[in-house]
Design goal:
two-stranded antiparallel ribbon, 121 residues, 4-stranded mixed beta sheet
Length: 121
């Protein structure tokens, strides 16, 4: 299903839209990417037939669905950012605390915490 720019996969009653991105050079590797914003892309090499593409996507449908499920689980626990001092964020596998200073205050050398300088309102 779908036209030349995307395909629709169905797994467990859920429809997954896969955006197709053509690769200029010929090859045999189909690259599938699942992004944290729940977009799914497939880089399709030149010369790939529709039947081969559908077969490869069908084989990877469960893997795509699992990745989407994992990203949705992470998004459930994400809190909206308020950009205030002391707020913590999960980044690169660790929890980091944000320290915000007003514009013009001395920041010093702080390598432990990310410091955001905000202009006065």
């Amino acid at each position: 299903m779908g036209d030349g720019t995307h395909r629709i996969l169905t797994y467990g009653g859920e429809q997954i839209r896969v955006n197709l991105i053509p690769r200029a050079r010929p090859g045999t590797t189909l690259r599938i990417r699942v992004h944290p914003d729940l977009n799914v892309e497939a880089c399709v090499p030149d010369g790939t037939t529709g039947a081969d593409l559908d077969k490869a996507l069908h084989q990877k449908t469960r893997w795509i669905w699992q990745k989407l499920r994992d990203f949705r689980a992470v998004q459930e626990h994400a809190t909206p950012r308020a950009y205030v001092s002391g707020e913590s964020h999960f980044y690169l596998g660790r929890r980091h605390q944000r320290w915000t200073r007003l514009f013009g205050q001395f920041l010093g050398l702080n390598k432990l915490y990310p410091v955001v300088v905000m202009p006065p309102f």
